[in-house]
Amino acid sequence: MDWLRKFAAIALAECEGEGRGTALEGLEEAEVSIVSDRVMAEVHRKFMGIAGATDVITFEHGEIVISAETAERQGREYGQGVEREIGLYVIHGILHLNGYDDVEVEAAARMRERQAGILAAVLRVMG
Known about the structure:
Blueprint: H1 2-15, E1 31-35, H2 37-48, E2 56-58, E3 63-67, H3 68-78, H4 82-97, H5 105-126
Parallel strand pairs: 1-3
Antiparallel strand pairs: 2-3
Helix pairs in contact: 1-4, 1-5, 3-4, 4-5
């Protein structure tokens, strides 16, 4: 997964300055885990009390958990590859660590706009 390491490093650099007094400021490292929908559903239920799989869950201590199966499914739905979809989830997780929230409609729209801009910037750098 060299592409993921490279992508995450560039995405992290692109997200610098996005922080809002958040968990990311004190982190020495972040961990990205790619899991199945079954495992994601367990994490989702255990830590958020919500049944079923989701695309990405971010924990304050720096762990970003991503469902590969959901990324593949949503990538097909949106006409993009699984790597690009996983990359988007990495950015989404980093933005959560930076204090972005997607619960309220306006906040979610701001987050989507910012992650799209970061995704475009990272893909330009990666060539």
